[in-house]
Amino acid sequence: MNVTNVNTANEVTTEELLEDYASYKIVDVRTDDEFKGIKVEEGTTGGHMKDALQVRFTDMFRPDGTLKSNSELVRLFEAAGIKKTDKIATCCTGGIRSGYMQLVLRMLGYENSYNYAESVYRWSNTADAGTGDYWVQ
Question: What are the b/e assignments for 33-55, b being 16+ CB within 10 Å?
């Protein structure tokens, strides 16, 4: 089976973020070491996007690996300063963990949430994005 059509309605691109960066709440779902630049994936620069909020992907799950309840998840996002009315871009290293979190956000009613699928791999290697104006090491 070949994929012939990809729905990107729930994604935001590097170009879109650069055009309107200040209007987004960036939610970085990576681990503490990734976020702080201690663990650096090959092909990326250590650190995180400027003004990014960190909500670790793993924080969405209970110790047994099941997803937390809706009310627990909403409290998690609210504690991080994320409101249902915010324009949100989730990111990680390559867009997989952030895509899952974006799906959870949408299911919880965060209608203006988008996955930055190109994520840190692209952002840290984009001349305009990988600067001090948009990147923290």
Answer: ebbeeeebeeebebbbbeebbbb
